Amino acid sequence: MPSRWSSGVGERVHDLGVFKAVGMTPRQTTAMVVCSVSGVGLVAGLLAIPAGVALQRYVLPVMAHAAQTGVPPSVLNAYHPWELILLALSGLVIASAGALAPAGWAARTRTASALRAG
């Protein structure tokens, strides 16, 4: 296996090789890879949005104080709840889109090569 792969990825490739050896189709392989990262993307979005809002509400008043000015409430309350939900779901979309290329590679990899990866 090329040196760019970590041992965790090599083990994952080996696992995919086992699944392919027992009859997993390329479409099922692609779906499995995309689904395996979707949960992480959703959790990342759900954690990042509240952290980003909290950081905005902390940093902007500090910056305004340093500039000896005020911050209007409309600046601190810039997002509507539905926008925050869409932003949180964007983590899911980004993770799924980012997994498509590796999923295609996993679907095309020969079973024997994948089994040797572990």
Low-confidence stretches: 1-7
User: How many helices in DSSP terms?
Assistant: 5
Q: How far apart are the first and last residues' alpha carbons, in Å?
A: 9 Å
Tertiary shape: rod-shaped
Task: Assign a percent range to the helix content.
Answer: over 70%
> For the CA atoms, what is the radius of gyration?
21 Å
Instruction: Please indicate the percent range of residues in DSSP E strands (runs of 2 or more).
Output: under 5%
What is the averaged pLDDT score?
Answer: 80
Say how many strands there are: 0
Structural class: mainly alpha
Order of helices and strands: HHHHH
Main β-sheet, in a few words? none
The number of domains is: 1
Explained architecture:
This protein has one domain (7-117). 81% of the residues lie in helices and 0% in strands. The chain is built from five helices and no strands.
Q: What can be said about this structure in brief?
A:
The chain has 118 residues and is mostly helical.
List the SSEs and their pairings:
Layout: H1 7-21, H2 26-66, H3 73-76, H4 81-108, H5 111-117
What keyword list fits this structure?
118 residues, mainly alpha, 0% strand, disordered N terminus
